[in-house]
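batch_manifest entry 22 of 60
target: Ribonuclease H
source organism: Aureobasidium pullulans
requested by: lab member K.T.
priority: normal
notes from requester: please return tokens only, no post-processing; we will run our own comparison against the previous entry in this batch. if the run fails, retry once and flag.
--- input ---
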Amino acid sequence: MPAKFYVVKAGRKPGIYNSWDECLAQVRGYKGATFKSFPQLTEAQAWLNGSDTPSTSSSTVSSKPGKFYGVHKGHKPGVYTSWADAQNTIADFKGAVYKSFKTQAEAEAFSRDGHAQKRPSEEPSQTTPPAKKQKQDTDDLEDLVEHAAGEGPLPDGAEDGFDPRITLNPVTGKIEYKEATTKWQAVNLQDDKPVVIYTDGSSLGNGAHGAVAGVGVYFGPQDRRNLSEPLSGTRQTNQRAELTAIQRALEIAPRNRPVTIYTDSNYSIKCVTEWFVKWKANGWLNAARKPVENKDLIEKILNLIEQRKNMSQEISNKVEFVWVKGHATNEGNIAADELAVAGAREAREILANPDIEEP
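--- output ---
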């Protein structure tokens, strides 16, 4: 049993880790990282789930007040204190109804009744759909779904496939609505136009000791969803950076629309479209009967693709991959490469000037 349990509440991959090195890989270079160490696993789990567990050792780069997530319709309706738990119960649930609140009482009321309680000083609840789009009583939410930021249909006047109502939170790295309001849309309002994304990975000193890698995801010129970040983990290879870029693109892109990903990594495309079939049949062993490299990332991408397929039987949410020659004349690929290189350089600067100490 490890001497300490390290909890990452805000980082590249929130969770509980058994070593400081694993924890550091998730928080180093992540703006707004929040993490603590605990001597007992039960304390670590409680803090991760939102409880205020006392701890003699902690380190918090930044903290935010907790939220309560009320799920009225999902696999398991109720109140959750972490978005990850709430997301698990609404994933792949058609017509899921959910909302975040600042207090547990409000979340419990929404979970029970399906609509937010209006305070005396409040305007009418934002959870009620506009009358012009409403085809049933406002309390009947059977055919309505709350879309997370970046996942709903594009509004009128949107240009280049970008929703002007959303922004990229520089602290959490997540897509959010600019206004703190709940956005509701009828589930039959969908846009079948594919989202075009360019991805790339870069490893400075690839294959050598001390190599650092970065990830680049490019949606378009000045698109707030464009991403440049260091590759997490201790294995800083070009292949892992390429695969991680695809993973991050699928996490950011709207899940209710088809996606076309352009990448110069033929290896990545083959991994998630062809080779994985035999690998899975062989127990994730390659032709040489050795464990498949980068299995963890490949499985994450396959799961994200499968989630899209299962979201709706009426809409094609398929993911297509297109190979493009790298370092050539394709503007999207060049932009993704620049973002990836910038992420790798950021990783190099972090290693040269470490400013995070073990809690």
